[in-house]
Amino acid sequence: MHPMPTKSLKSQTSASIACLTDTGHVRKSNHDAFIVIDLTEAESMGSSGEFITCPIGEHGLLLAIADGIGGASAGDIASQMATEQLARELVVAPKKKPVSEWLRKGIKAANHAIRNASQANPEYQGMGATITAAIITDGQVVVGQVGDSRAYLIREGQINQVTKDPSLVRMALDPGQITEQKAAHFRFRNVILHALGAEDEVEPELSSVRLARGDHLLLCSDGLSNKVGNVEMYELVLASESLSDACDWLVGLANGRGGEDNITVIVACFDGKELPAVQEVAAGYTR
């Protein structure tokens, strides 16, 4: 009898994912976009309201959310272009290079696509988008970000924001000029400093986190993060019977508090005996 082949970490780690996007109560159209892609099979998965469970293949899994800049011309086109161009770039990326380099180049390509379309079409002039994208592979998540869509890691009793908002309010928070409580009511809290399509070149913020069994990754547009606090996100995700219920509760809470913006959320949970236990993973993030 021949021994069974040993599968790699990439094929034995699995993800359960739920996604939901909502127009909200005020805006007439949805300028958010999201995408879930199996980068090994070059296959798109997961529509709004859907729950999926899948193995993480050799080249990993992509989760991404883009948000057309508040009210700007063709924001819906920009967000869709951002996610689709990023996915195209990552599917054909040379996999021998570091994951962070795939992601960096993919986001820069999305910026070029939006910038070129904006300059070539008068009806698209001024369009732009934020993006937060995560590649999950080799037992880690690598996050790339331009703008204020966010990524959070939920792990055993705590929630931590992986991304860092490039905004005027963040510039005031970092040196301690204002408190988190005051930031919620800061006059310019929605002013972001970087966006896809705004300039010829953009440099994404990159972060990486080593995953543990049972970790949750939450990606969202600011339609959620402006209405629901970090601790509330943590409590709703862990208290919900399913990831789909968690998405429903989160979007419902944001809408219940006004729903002035589009709201999009992706929640993923990771499992697999090859992932280390939480106790084995060193705390903190690398940037």
Task: Tell me what the structure shows.
The protein has 287 residues and is an alpha+beta fold. It has one domain: 4-Layer Sandwich (Phosphatase 2c, domain 1). It contains 8 helices and 12 strands. It has helices spanning 9-12, 75-91, 99-120, 168-173, 180-183, 222-225, 230-239, 243-256, and strands spanning 14-22, 32-38, 43-44, 51-55, 61-68, 129-137, 140-146, 150-155, 158-161, 205-210, 216-220, 263-271. The radius of gyration is 18 Å and the shape is globular. Residues 1-10 and 168-176 have low confidence and may be disordered.
Secondary-structure element series: HEEEEEHHEEEEHHEEHHHE
Number of helices: 8
Quote the beta fraction: 25-35%
- Just give the CATH class: Alpha Beta
Shape annotation: globular
CATH topology title: Phosphatase 2c, domain 1
Major beta sheet summary: 6 strands, antiparallel
CATH superfamily: PPM-type phosphatase domain
**Mean pLDDT over the residues:** 86
Task: Please give the number of β-strands.
Answer: 12
What are the defining features of this structure?
six-stranded antiparallel sheet, disordered N terminus, 8 helices, Phosphatase 2c, domain 1, alpha+beta, 287 residues, globular, 12 strands
Topology (elements, then pairings):
Layout lengths: L8 H4 L1 E9 L9 E7 L4 E2 L6 E5 L5 E8 L6 H17 L7 H22 L8 E9 L2 E7 L3 E6 L2 E4 L6 H6 L6 H4 L21 E6 L5 E5 L1 H4 L4 H10 L3 H14 L6 E9 L16
Helix pairs in contact: 2-3, 7-8
